[in-house]
Amino acid sequence: MWAARRLGCSMIVPEHALLAPGLEVSRIVTGLWQVADMERDGRKLDLDAAAAAMADYAAAGFDSFDMADHYGSAEDIAGRCVRLREDRGNRRPVLFTKWCPVPGEMTPTVVRAAVQRSLDRLRVPRIDLLQFHWWTFEHPAYLDAMLELAALQAEGLIAHLGVTNFDTDHLRVLVKHGIPIVSNQVCFSLLDRRAGEEMSAFCRENGIRLLTYGTLAGGLLSERWLGAPEPAAPAIADWSKMKYKRFVDAIGGWTVLQAILAAVAKVARKHGVSVANVATRWVLEQPAVAAIIVGARLGEREHRANNLHLFSFALDDEDRATIEAALAATMRIPGDCGDEYRRPPFLTASGDLSHHLAQVRKFYLAVPVPGRSDRLRVDSGSVWEPVCGYSRAVRSGNRILVSGTTATRGSGEMVCKGDVAGQTVYTLDKIAASIAALGGTLADVVRTRIYLRDADQWEAASRVHGRYFGDVRPANTLVEASNLVGDYDVEIEAEADLA
User: Fold this and answer.
1) Is 5 helix (H, G, I), strand (E, B) or coil?
2) Nearby residues of 113 by Cβ (< 8 Å), 6 or more positions away
3) Pairing relation of β-strands 372-378 and 393-396?
4) Which of 9, 39, 57, 218 has a CA 20 to 30 Å removed from the CA of 169?
5) Are 50 and 92 in contact (CB under 8 A)?
6) Taking Cα atoms as reference points, which of 330, 348, 331 lies closest to residue 339?
7) How far is CA 333 from the centre of its chain?
């Protein structure tokens, strides 16, 4: 159990945790995503004033900050805060940032340029924690990017690597391919409890900690909304509330939220703290969670004094039972962590992101089959395709057939050697990319065939298959083929019908 640290007789300061070797962080991390919201419509913050406000957080013990390359001027503000703290002879704040590139070729030059840009803005020689976000796993260059980031880490430009909004399957791919991941930043709250399921189990097994955001659902989990009528759309003014109102709708609506708030308020009265304190404490006590990220509107308002109460109490069994009774009436947020950015129902501030994802360049290119105007094919670049005379996938009319596919990166590197589940994930992503290049989706798949080196590994492969095709339910055959070429553990082929 984490307890509050005290200075003198009564002053409470935020508890800290060891996120990774040499990286101690406040268990309340100050998030700077609202900088982008504050700079909407061409507005520009006073960077020096914002840096001074940020320094006030650090002085109060909230000395860890989370930002991203696209959070407006956040990295520039953090860089000025670093200089301000150093000028005063104070300890430099701990800085997390994110790189969120448009999927495309992730060459060493591209990756290095992104890291150097953040280093320059932050005014530091090394990034404490660089977190990587990827929009669509049908484009496998996320693994290329992470391998290059690991090389820059070895070079000393990055202290630790994390990811943000990765689901459990693709976090597995990175870990089982040897990428040294220390954290995954995901949504976790009383409304959205996906991170407490398979994600937490995998993280605990592999020494990964969760950094969580959305804990207060954009402020909806606070006294302000207890007993309040459901607001009309214009009353949900900022991006954060716009996003989490969608979560409220997904779990069952405003009535369900009010039941949760009533239960949390009962616990809050018992401990003499706020609703926000209890909602946050519930997440902070989850076993895989290292810290929660609370957004700040620098220079506008701050909640440091209230957040300190978080460390003055702990939930007991009665408290948890009260909260769980209210949660029993909720519907589960669909999918795994991060799915709100990649698939319906797209629970983001702007809603449907399908148009955004449709603009991402396809990984494979469909080309006509010579002499056959009714056929298209996809080549993956394998040296064996022209030698052996086959294509990664072929479309004939409305039918798409995908050749036996393995977890091969580039021209020959095996991904996740020895891990059946990881190989299955990477393989199905390649199949999805092949079908997408020919105009289809996994929803069009009508048959799959899975070939396993060891039939005893059927469950690992089948569970991944179920997560990709649980709603589609194609015909499927799974067989043992002990002499799979290339020492792979699994090979999969698929057929899709676009009719």
Assistant:
1) strand
2) none
3) antiparallel
4) 218
5) no
6) 348
7) 15
Residue 330 burial (C-beta neighbours within 10 Å; 0-12, 13-18, 19+): buried
How far apart (Å, rounded) are the C-alpha atoms in residues 379 and 367? Answer: 9
Q: What is the Rg, in whole angstroms, of the alpha carbon atoms belonging to the chain?
A: 24
Distance CA 289, CA 281 (A): 11
How many whole angstroms separate alpha carbon 212 and alpha carbon 283? 8
* Secondary structure of residue 104 in the 3-state scheme: coil
Burial of 346 (0-12, 13-18, 19+ CB in 10 A): middle
- Assess contact for 486 and 406: CB atoms under 8 A: yes
Distance CA 132, CA 123 (A): 20
Residue 278, CA distances (Å) to 193, 215, 275, 316 in order: 15, 10, 5, 11
| Residues forming beta bridges with residue 455, ordered by sequence position | none
Give the distance, in angstroms, between the CA of residue 439 and the centroid of all CA atoms in the same chain: 27
Q: Which of 284, 265, 277, 273 is nearest to 323 (CA)?
A: 265
Non-local CB neighbours of 169 within 8 Å, separated by 6+ positions: 336, 421, 425, 464, 467
Pairing of strands 94-99, 11-13: unpaired
Contact between residue 337 and residue 171 where contact means Cβ atoms under 8 Å apart = no
Question: Is 267 in contact with 278 (CB distance < 8 Å)?
Answer: yes
List C-alpha distances in Å: 79 to 52, 160, 300, 358.
Answer: 11, 19, 20, 35
The CA–CA distances, whole Å, from 347 to 74, 185, 240, 353, 486 equal 24, 16, 11, 9, 41
pLDDT in tens, the chain (499 residues): 334 444 333 467 789 999 999 999 999 999 998 898 788 888 889 999 999 999 999 999 999 999 999 999 999 999 999 999 888 888 899 999 999 999 999 999 999 999 999 999 999 999 999 999 999 999 999 999 999 999 999 999 999 999 999 999 999 999 999 999 999 999 999 999 999 999 999 999 999 999 999 999 989 999 999 999 999 877 787 777 888 999 999 999 999 999 999 999 999 999 999 999 999 999 999 999 999 999 888 888 787 888 888 999 999 999 999 999 999 999 999 999 999 988 878 887 667 666 666 777 889 999 998 888 889 999 987 777 888 999 999 999 999 999 999 999 987 899 999 999 999 999 999 999 999 999 999 999 999 999 999 999 999 999 999 999 999 999 999 999 988 888 899 999 999 999 8
Within a 10 A sphere around the Cβ of 446, how many other Cβ atoms? 15
Q: How many Å apart are CA 148 and CA 136, to the nearest integer?
A: 19
> Would you say 78 and 92 are in contact if contact means Cβ atoms under 8 Å apart?
no
Beta strands in 36-93 (DSSP E): 64-66
Instruction: Name residues whose C-beta falls within 8 Å of residue 243's C-beta, 6 or more positions apart in sequence.
Output: 214, 218, 347, 348, 349
Question: How many residues can be counted in the chain?
Answer: 499
